[in-house]
UniProtKB/TrEMBL annotation:
Family of this protein: Belongs to the TRAFAC class YlqF/YawG GTPase family. RsgA subfamily.
Domain EngC GTPase: 108-255
Name this polypeptide is given: Small ribosomal subunit biogenesis GTPase RsgA
Chief location of this protein within or outside the cell: cytoplasm
């Protein structure tokens, strides 16, 4: 059962200490507030966090959909307690909606990210860059999916242009309406691997998931043709098996990840800019009015698109702010750990004194 969900030898190895402790392995397929739906060898269980994990979660964040966990099960009741979370291979992280400080893992152990964007009027290079950076940052392999090819006069030529923005990742052209290119998507996913779809509202993610599942599993909604903007369709979403043996995680949180928290994602998407900057005369060039600035030169001569440059700067600033927040968060965790150590030290000293007196 859990083999289908990606359980592997590597996982079995890292689970060994938990197996010795008598725990069962499972994978979270749906995470909603206090409850986690976990697939296990004993069926699907509704699991809560142990007291210790709940306490830790206040700082380290809650386990996420896609996480592998160690549980003690009450199979008769269909419930379980989660005692530990296995190390993640990859993770999608974002700032919690209610705070600048808190980072939240919204999906874990993802192998492939399909960055979905449509070929009609709503296509935006800036948005593609942002989603690609988020995809790279997660640690998974990005694959660009261009939807609604039927609305595009020359989809292949358009795709070739878009591929220049996508820094070496595969670019697939699909039309669910015409039944084109769906097999190509599944070719990028091996059995037991997990994918997610990210992209703006209305680009056709639900339609694509339905087509992949071969049924009307997700609710889709008519798009407003006039302005080519989609409306939000919310439905119950979780980690599900695809016919080819792959898995898809489709949760509202993952769909619009736009925030990134590491430089790797950015430098992969903007490697042209990184290369250019290496040619600036000064190593610490601010690319504003320094003499011999290669970026300025490229902008003036039209080799570097001004919009792309502005977007790179904006994302760099967001990254810096996020890195700062992350730093403060880990300092806070460290401070509390120290305080707890000091408290236990003081109380053991007191115990000693009490013992002596
Ligand atoms: N012409 C055409 N329209 C499509 C295609 N795929 C999806 N659509 C339409 O695009 C609209 C939006 O599709 P959805 O699948 O709901 O988009 P979504 O990305 O899931 O949107 P959210 O749920 O808001 O994130 C619907 O009206 C679909 O019928 C396609 O291949 N061709
Ligand atoms: Zn410069």
């Amino acid at each position: 059962m859990i083999e289908q969900y990606g359980w592997s030898d590597a996982l079995r190895l890292s689970f060994e200490p938990h197996a010795h402790a008598g725990y069962l392995p499972g994978r979270i397929i749906l995470q909603q507030r206090e409850t986690n739906l976990v697939v296990t060898g004993a069926g699907n269980l509704s699991a809560r966090l142990s007291g210790r994990l709940r306490h830790e979660a206040r700082e380290a964040g809650h386990p996420a959909a896609g996480d592998w966990v160690a549980l003690s099960a009450n199979a008769d009741e269909g419930t379980a307690i989660i005692h530990a979370v296995l190390p993640r291979r990859t993770a999608f992280v974002r700032r919690a909606a209610d705070s600048v400080q808190t980072l939240q893992v919204i999906a874990a152990n993802i192998d492939v990210v399909f960055v979905v964007t449509s070929m009609n009027a709503e296509f935006s290079p800036r948005r593609l860059e942002r989603f690609l950076a988020a995809a790279w940052q997660s640690g998974a392999r990005p694959v660009v999916v261009l939807t609604k090819a039927d609305l595009c006069e020359q989809p292949e030529a358009e795709a070739a242009k878009i591929a220049t923005l996508a820094a070496g990742c595969p670019v697939l052209v699909v039309s669910v309406l015409k039944g084109l290119g769906l097999g190509g998507l599944l070719d990028h996913l091996s059995p037991g691997e997990t994918c997610v779809l990210i992209g703006s509202s209305g680009v056709g993610k639900s339609t694509l998931v339905n087509a992949l599942l071969g049924e009307e599993r997700m609710a889709t909604q008519e798009i407003r043709a006039a302005d080519a903007r989609g409306r939000h369709t919310t439905s119950h979403r979780q980690l599900v098996l695809l016919p080819g043996g792959g898995l898809i995680l489709d949760t509202p949180g993952i769909r619009e990840v736009g925030l990134i928290d590491a430089d790797e994602g950015l430098s992969t998407v903007f490697d042209d800019i990184e290369h250019l900057a290496q040619n600036c005369r000064f190593g610490d060039c601010g690319h504003s009015s320094e003499p011999g600035c290669a970026i300025r030169k490229a902008l003036d001569e039209g080799f570097l698109d001004a919009g792309r440059w502005a977007h790179f700067q904006k994302l760099s600033m967001e990254l810096a702010a996020l890195a700062l927040a992350k730093d403060q968060m880990s300092q806070e965790v460290e401070r509390r750990r120290l305080a707890a150590l000091q408290r236990s030290y003081r109380s053991s000293k007191k115990d000693l004194r009490d013992l002596r007196s």
